[in-house]
Every structure is written in structure tokens, then in C-alpha cells.
Amino acid sequence: MDKNKIRNNCNVCGNKNIIDIINLGNQPFADTFIPKSRLDEHEDIYPLICQLCKKCKNIQLKYKTDPNKRYNDFEYSYTSSNSNFATNHWNEYFNTIEKKKYIQKNYKVLEIGSNDGYLLNHFKKYTNNIVGLDASKKMTLLANKKNIFTINGLMDQNSKNKITTYYNKFDLIIANNVINHMDELKISIKMIKSLLSSKGVFVFEQPYWLDTIKTIKYDQIYHEHITYFTVSLAKSIAKIINIKFFDFEIVNYHGKSIRFYFTLNTNKDLITQKNKIQKQIFLERKKNLFNVSFYNNFQKKIINHRNIILEKILNYKNKGYNIIAVGAAAKSNTWLNFHNLDSNIIKYITDKSLNKKNKFTPKSRIKIVDDIIIKKEKKPVIIILTWNIYEILKKKILKINKNSKFIKA
Question: In 3D, which of 1, 23, 21 has the Cα closest to residue 306?
Fold first, then answer.
């Protein structure tokens, strides 16, 4: 391992006393899907290790990767409007912002990690003063084609300079499943703070680490996810950069996600949910989220779980069943590569996304096809990797092929 690529200190508080807690082996970028024309290339692979900062309760990746390679080396394939499940979630998100009155007529709105512009488009109901920022060149192009003004770039000084040529301050800044992608979290949030108006609100949403650990859904760990969020971490961030963390909500997305609310506003028109925040911090501690010995047991647990799954798969394979994966998501790639499964074992993986079909999964090189192909199978065994919509997909697959058997990932 190149020592220059290792994080030697916490990217929130700078503490050097950081401890390895979870190791998922050598992994490619999870959001990379390989076109047929590039199958002979070898994509970058790095150790996927989580670290814990005992001081500020930050959980981060140990190994540094190049953000431009993460989002632009191979064409980025995930879109916010990828499924009805996703669009329903973003519709609910907008409705919540609207009910809380964090959006008003002619407000200036910035979305960081705006993807194809699906969510940002909702705010046109109130204002045309909207700006999107996205690291993917492809997503930026898609959004601009839909007349959602979007700048291509990371949340860095260069992007900030571009943003402020349009608006110096924003009344609402939103960022979903992207704050955890930022290499220098403290610097990035300070930059966001500098773009926020005095009474503005900053809202961001991430998968919730408590639920990830509680449900053993370690496949939500991947190189694009540098930081793993808890309420404890949110409180630490607020203190370190002097911003007000006043509320949070737990929502049913990616299993369970957590939506954080920050502001510079010190007036009483935004009520701080102090008791709610403290109660959740107490729960996180009670669940041992910041206990190193807990993660020693957790590591053993996931290895044991992997062995049980592999035994089931090989038993079916030896009996002549075809093993098929469903859901070519980023988390699916972490799961497949942690289990050392590839195209020798998995016949194909299905997904409805037009941006992914006929591409191949990273490292494992499994072809992505349409669900309907399962209809032709005589002895299919299905592993649904997008477990957050397991029941929806199971019903769909049984309608396509009633002989399907299932293994839970």
C-alpha cells in the first residue's frame, strides 16, 4: 500500500488517533460499470478499510482515491430518476422542505451532487434562481439538457468561484448522498457554510451508519463513500465549524437514511431539537457504534455470513441451477467482490437502468441485462442485491418466472 494514499488523521477534527475497524478487502470503485469496448482494461482497485476517530466519532475510509477517477474515468451510470422508488423518495423530500417552509418565492437554491436534476427541478415551482453542481460530466450534461442549470465539478474552491459568479449566498442548500463523498469533509462543509445566507438552511441526507451496522448491510461501504454519518458526527461537525445543527429525520431510503438540518440562523424561528438529538446520540453509544471491540466481532460476523452464503450458492450450482443476481447498484459491487463472486459463478445480473444494460460489473465482470431474460431460465436461483426493495423485486421476478428460488444477500 502506498503510504501517501493513506489517511493519517481524521478528515473532520484532524486527530491522528484513528483505528481500523472494518476491512472488506481489495475493491474497485463501486459506481463503475464497464462498457464492452473497455473489458480488457484493468480498473483501479484499492483496500476498502473503515477507520474510527475516537475523538469526534467520525468513521472514514483509510485509503485515498482520486475523485476524478471515481466519477469520470468510466461513464457514471446512476441517475436520481432511476426508479419509481427513487422518484417517490425525492418527491417526498421536496414536499418535506415545502411543508417546513424552507423554500419560498424567489429563494436562491443550490444542490450539491444534483445528478440529472430530478430533485432540483421541483424547486422551479418557487424560483428560477437554482444552481446544480455535480462531479459527473455525463450527469451535468443530462441536467443541462433538461434546462436545470448545472456546473460540473467537485465542492472545491474552483467550483465555489464558478457558483458565486451567479449568486454569492443561497437561502437553501441541499446535498443528498454526496456529503459522504467529499475527500476533505471539514473544508467542504466550511465552504458550504460560506455560501449559506444568514437565515438559510442546509439540508443533506446520507445512509445512516447505525442502520448499516444494525442490519449488517456492510455493502453500503465503498470507495465513493468516504465518510459514514451518525448524529454524533453531525454534532461534532457543528461544533468544529461553528454552524447550528438543529434537527434530523430518519427516512426509509437505502434501508434507513438520515436527513440533517443545519443553519447559521441563531434566532428562535428555527426550533432546535436538543432533546431529540441527545437521545439519538445516547442510542448510538448504547449500540456500541464507537466501540472498537464491537467492530472486531462485527468483522467476524460478516466473514461468517459470507461463508454461509457461499456454501448455499455452491450447493445450488452443483445441482445444476443458474445463479442470477438482481440489481446492479453500487452496493451490489461491494457485496459481489467481498464474496469473490464473478462471471464464473453468477450467470448475469439484471437491472432496469438503460445506462447500465450491456455493461459489466467492475472486477467481477458480470454482464448486466434486462430482468425479462430470467423468463427463459429453467432452474434459476436469484440473489436480490438491491435489498432495500427486496419485496418489490421478488414479486416482479416471480411474475417473470414462477420457478425462481431465492437466496437472501
Answer: 23
Distances (CA, A) of 156 to 126, 184, 192, 281: 28, 10, 10, 30
With a CB cutoff of 8 Å and minimum separation 6, the contacts of 275 are none
- Nearest-angstrom CA–CA distance, 112 and 131: 9
CB atoms within 10 A of CB 395: 9
Instruction: Say how far apart CA 72 and CA 120 lie, in whole Å.
Output: 22
Q: What gap in Å lies between CA 271 and CA 266, rounded to an integer?
A: 10
Give Cα 407 distance to the centre of its chain.
24
Where does residue 155 rank: exposed (0-12), middle (13-18), buried (19+ CB within 10 A)? buried
Among residues 147, 79, 145, the alpha carbon closest in space to that of 114 is found at 79
The rounded distance, in Å, linking the Cα atoms of 58 and 60 is 6
**Where do the domains of the chain lie, and which CATH numbers do they carry?**
3-64 (no CATH), 84-284 (3.40.50.150), 292-408 (3.40.50.720)
E-only strand ranges, 153-223: 170-176, 196-207
Q: Where are the beta strands (DSSP E) in 177-243?
A: 196-207, 227-228
Phi-psi region of 147 (alpha: psi -120 to 50; beta: other; left: phi over 0): left
The residue written with cell numbers 419485496 in the block is: 391
pLDDT tens track for 138-195: 899 999 999 999 999 999 999 999 999 999 999 999 999 999 999 999 999 999 999 9
- The reported pTM is 0.91
* 339-392 per-position pLDDT tens digit: 999 999 999 999 988 889 999 999 999 999 999 999 999 999 999 999 988 999
Of 178, 184, 162, 32, nearest to 113 by C-alpha is: 178
> Using an 8 Å Cβ cutoff, are 50 and 59 in contact?
yes
Q: What type of residue is 26?
A: N
Q: Compute the distance between CA of residue 390 and CA of residue 403 in angstroms, rounded to an integer.
A: 17
